[in-house]
Design a protein that fits this description.
The structure is a homodimer. Chain A is an alpha+beta fold. Helices cover 45% and strands 26% of the residues of chain A. In chain A, α5 crosses α8 and α6 packs across α7. The longest helix of chain A has 26 residues. Chain A binds a DNA duplex through α7.
DNA sequence: ACCAAGCTGTGACTGGGGTCACGGAAGCTC
DNA sequence: GAGCTTCCGTGACCCCAGTCACAGCTTGGT
């Protein structure tokens, strides 16, 4: 979001912000806690996750700076609906609820920009619901690999995380990821060497990812 | 939402609205279409659903008047992320995108109210992701029955829809709903007679619904 | 070079739930 | 009440995914 703010807006917010730093893997706030305010992510990367008591996890989104988190509870007043965990060294600016409201009133463009952001989030989440309801792990995995591939620009890239983390991102467990990767390899869709993925048949992967949605 | 509007806001919108009526079961708009504007639901009930090509469906939310739908695409500019279908005879008021923007600017309270609504939606959706990712149909069904029970006020109520529709609401298929209902009955949690449900052990149902989240 | 700690691959097993196929029940219309 | 249509229950079957267990592999540290 706040890349789209103009200078006046930026400084209005800057005066109210409290800077906080987090080492990778820190829980910035946990699901269920009362909402303190909104966080602007200035540097770093955080993930928004839902967790079960037994330790399973699904990642709702990954947010890289510049971005914001905790827009939901700040507006509807409830507790945080999910937890946020830093993935890399992260710098965030916390703005207290009431301060943020005040800025919203004095800068009416801010709510509009917020709405755009919320819209995007909601859209992502709808896609996620669709993927977990109708799709298999295989499909979600294929999609994720394609995303990483295009992000990397080439047909070959390194897995940016362990199978364990990848599993959580997809809402499943390590073994299933491992097995499905092997299966893709056995089918000739990709080659795996150490932790690097060579996509051999992007078209085939795309078929897997999209079939039957 | 627009129950919270004041008179000035209401009339500012009313001037721009186009009234439309829909018989039950009508597709008001379908996923993927370009967004015309925002719909205010004046009377009736609509459901927001995601569908697969093979006809399976999951209901994202049920919205009874007064409410709004299509807030997402109006702000982020993309196509509709899901389809909206009337459940009962429905009257909606369509407000074109640009008209709505204009009203937003002249009535800065409206975006703020919108944000509250979006927040609630997002929260619901997060819950749904959690439910479908980690929960079983059994759990979701138990939860739904409890919801209906409290809504009805007593321990006994009529199923408001066929098993088929109930299945779609839960993101599964008819047979599975049927089986799970039978199972609940066999376990003494409830009694079914024609289409009426008698909850015999609400506590037990609650356990089922909440276990292992 | 070695060891320890984390990663990764795989086999065996289980259970949920989706699909197919029917037969029976309940409502409707004439 | 005959015949239709829509709904509901159930059995058979299969496959995906989650769990447990364990062995082989990296990797980094000293």
């Amino acid at each position: 979001m706040f890349s789209t703010l103009d200078d006046a807006e930026r400084s209005a917010l800057g005066d109210l912000a409290v800077e906080r730093r987090y080492a990778p893997g820190t829980v910035i706030f946990a699901e269920g806690e009362a909402c303190e305010g909104i966080y602007l992510i200035g540097e770093g990367v955080v993930k928004i996750v839902k967790t079960t008591s037994s330790g399973r996890e699904i990642m709702l989104t990954l947010e890289a700076a510049p971005s914001t988190v905790a827009e939901v509870p700040i507006f509807d007043g409830g507790p945080y609906p999910a937890s946020v965990v830093s993935v890399r060294e992260t710098v965030a600016y916390l703005i207290a609820k009431n301060d943020f409201y005040r800025v919203c009133r004095s800068h009416p463009e801010i709510p509009m920009k917020m709405l755009r952001v919320m819209g995007k989030r909601l859209r992502q989440l709808v896609m996620l619901v669709q993927a977990v309801t109708f799709g298999s792990v295989r499909q979600r995995l294929a999609q994720q690999l394609l995303d990483w591939q295009t992000e990397a620009g080439g047909v070959e890239f390194a897995l940016p995380s362990s199978h364990e983390e990848l599993a959580m991102r997809l809402g499943t467990v390590r073994e299933v990821v491992s097995r499905n990767l092997s299966r893709f390899q056995a089918e000739g869709l990709l080659a795996i060497e150490r932790r690097r993925i060579h996509v051999l048949d992007a078209e085939g992967l795309r078929n897997e990812a999209e079939s039957e949605l």
